[in-house]
Amino acid sequence: MQPKWSTACRDWERRIVAQRSLIPFSPLFPDEAEHALAVFKSLRVVDLPGQPTFGEVCEPWVFDFVAAIFGANDPETGNQLISEFFLLISKKNTKSTIAAGIMLTALIINWRHEEELLILAPTIEVAQNSYKPAAAMVRVDDELSELLHVQDHRRTITHRVTKAALKVVAADTDTVSGKKSGRILIDELWVFGKRPNADAMLREATGGLVSRPEGFVIYLSTQSDQPPSGVFKAKLDYARDVRDGRVEDNRFLPVIYEFPRKMVDRDEHLDPANFYVSNPNLGRSVRQDWLEAELKKELASGPETRNVFLAKHLNIEIGQNLMANRWPGADFWPKRKLEGLTLEHLLSVSEVCVVGIDGGGLDDLFGLSIIGRHRETRDWLVWSHAWCHEGVLERRKSVASKLRDFERDGDLTIVKDELGDISQIIEIIDDIKQRGLLASVAVDPAGLGEMIEALDEIGVTQEAGNLIGAPQGYAMMNAIKTAERKLANGTMKHDGSALMAWCVGNLKIEPTATAIRATKQNAGDAKIDPVMAMFDAVTIMSRNPEAKAFDVNAWIASYA
Length: 560
Known about the structure:
By secondary structure, this protein is an alpha/beta fold. Helices cover 38% and strands 17% of the residues. Residues 66-196 form the Terminase large subunit-like ATPase domain.
């Protein structure tokens, strides 16, 4: 009879605090799980004093994970009923060593001749982190040395009987094209998330699963040292959806060691008594005293290194880049997200709107921010969007994966037509104008010739008083200060897009003797155009404008 199970773990918050298993079901086939566990537990961890076995030193969570993987294989059909596994865990919780043990176990119990098993790492250094302990496990055991052949120069371990081989491949040097691996482990997925071609590469690497019903793929990672992006963000978001029961996928098992949101909001992750939540190996491979000492140092340092420490050692997701010379409003930005704030909602509750526009060339973003003043509370509501041309993905490869993420979120539109962005922006502005809500459009005058001409066609001109060149550089100081004050006191709220969080984090404030100005943290790739568009709109909204009456006859005449 086919077993029934669910990989959702809706009570994970209670489980993780109580140090209970995050795998909500027993192995589907207990005998298969026990057989694999017997092999896994017998492997020796060579770099520990006394060279103990996994069975002697591992915490129960490790055995639960191993049992879930190998216990999902139906011995009658050979089918792997759970074929994808995702483990997110803090640094130094023996992730790579466990990876070596799992894949070595798979090699030993594998029945298919000439099979290829693969550990795919983003760099040679990460590849060595898995290969070296696997090779050492073989060499320290006489029985395994007779069964398995180790070839260091190829980072390959071959089964002498079945001729199956475990290969450890570094994606930065070795090709994955044409791989027919049936069992695959992908290490440090967060690094792959930074690469624009990672999705295609991983699809190529895992293509062999199509003809391997007994196959599986395991994704292992720590948190990213920057806001998650690319394939890592996609897989992490999906894993959380499956875990929380929002998506039903019983072939995908997520195991995520992270703090519940409420604990992070209350800063309980900074309490050393709670370090165990994201460090299930605390007291073994992770030292409590070291974490406490390092946390004290980081709390006294700047946000750059502090965020990386929290991400790597406590698995806290970085929401936005917070540099030492960041815009002060960035500290309040995450708190002012208003759920359900769409453009349509903003327009339906606002008494007046100001549109801000800031755009660069064909290798930049075209930013649009709309600020609406709520007709009852008079709070400022901000909705933003951006456009870019396809060529940006080639010219700015370091952020290409992020831009694709924003496109999937619906916050960025990637266009092919050189005027496609302008036509869409004009359509939005025209709609606001027809509703009788438009006070004015505030623009950075530089380089907007085509936009100015397009605005003229819908009756938005300097002569009509509804097109205003917003002051730039140091003259924008009042808008920057106004925005940060309103964020601080809660009277300015936004739609919470990941695009704007990224842009806000990229913003750098440069002080002078008498003023400040906003620039980018890094030239070229760190985009801020939608935020600058917001400041353009703030310039006008701070003057308490009223919507200009909509002259329907003039509008009809403009199209005649």
